[in-house]
Specification:
Layout: E1 9-13, H1 20-31, E2 34-37, H2 38-51, H3 60-66, E3 70-72, E4 78-80, E5 83-84, H4 86-89, H5 92-102, H6 105-116, E6 124-128, H7 131-135, E7 141-146, H8 149-162, H9 169-185, E8 198-201, H10 207-220
Parallel strand pairs: 1-6, 1-7, 2-6, 7-8
Antiparallel strand pairs: 3-4, 4-5
Bound molecules: 2'-deoxycytidine-5'-monophosphate (DC).
2'-deoxycytidine-5'-monophosphate is lined by residues 16, 38-39, 42-43, 95, 98-99, 102, 128-130, 179, 183.
Length: 227
């Protein structure tokens, strides 16, 4: 089986709201593999910088990235310097801050090894923007999941309203477009599908359909379930 340093890796890249996070969790559970939510690492770095009073464009953000004290617990919760930050990590504001620091090559370089270290037996499902192009370019199975900005904003809107938050659909569409533009056009590791990725548009598909098609693709790439 082809794999990254003998550890099989599945990469799932795409813009926020495409459903890649949910897909990655479900595929990792099906395969019995570990999960890397690389967006959370960028979000944690942005949050740590903000909490330390470091401006997002300051050189000191690189040091924040290098010394990030993050823990990913088996139950899915995430700690920053020992404190659970699950709620604040998922806000639109933290996402926008993460997108800004993620455009800086030195920050990406500082977080590279930390992401690579997630590749542990029996295997890894890595979710992000550049998992298949930069961090795990030799991964045997790569997926790029997209969806229209309107559909992604609508999903986010329903999620926010469902959780009792206030939200405005036009503002969400504008925010999503702005973040997409920055992530897709940055000079380093832009959001693009790897040449050998399975590209899917989830706009009109249920998560179950996407999952079934992706699992079928993964099995054709020689990866097997760990259990
Ligand atoms: O997937 P997410 O929304 O949690 O990611 C937040 C931001 O982090 C995203 O707008 C861009 C950045 N990011 C990145 O540049 N590379 C990754 N592999 C993952 C996220």
């Amino acid at each position: 089986m082809s794999a990254v340093g003998e550890i099989p890796v599945v990469t799932i890249d795409g813009p926020s709201g495409s459903g890649k996070g949910t897909l990655a969790r479900r595929i990792a559970a099906q395969l019995g593999f570990h999960l890397l939510d690389s967006g959370a690492i960028y979000r944690l770095t942005a949050l740590a910088a903000a909490r330390a009073g470091v401006a997002l464009d300051a050189p000191a953000v690189v040091r924040v990235a290098e010394t990030l004290d993050a823990q990913f617990l088996p139950d899915g919760s995430i700690l920053l310097a020992g404190e659970c930050v699950d709620g604040v990590l998922r806000t639109e504001q933290t996402g926008a801050m993460a997108s800004q620091i993620a455009a800086r090559p030195e920050v990406r370089a500082a977080l590279f090894d930390r992401q690579k270290a997630f590749a542990q037996a029996p295997g890894l499902v890595a979710d992000g923007r550049d998992m298949g192009t930069v961090v795990f370019p030799d991964a045997p199975a790569k997926i790029f999941l997209d969806a229209s900005a309107e559909i992604r904003a609508e999903r986010r809107y329903n999620q926010l309203i469902g959780n009792g938050f206030d939200a405005k659909l036009p503002a969400l569409i504008a925010e999503i477009r702005e973040r997409d533009q920055r992530d897709r056009t940055r000079a380093v590791a832009p959001l693009v599908p790897a040449a050998d990725a399975l590209v899917m548009d989830s706009s009109a598909l249920s998560i179950e359909t996407v999952e079934a098609q992706v699992m079928a693709f993964i099995l054709t790439r020689g990866l097997n379930k760990a259990h």
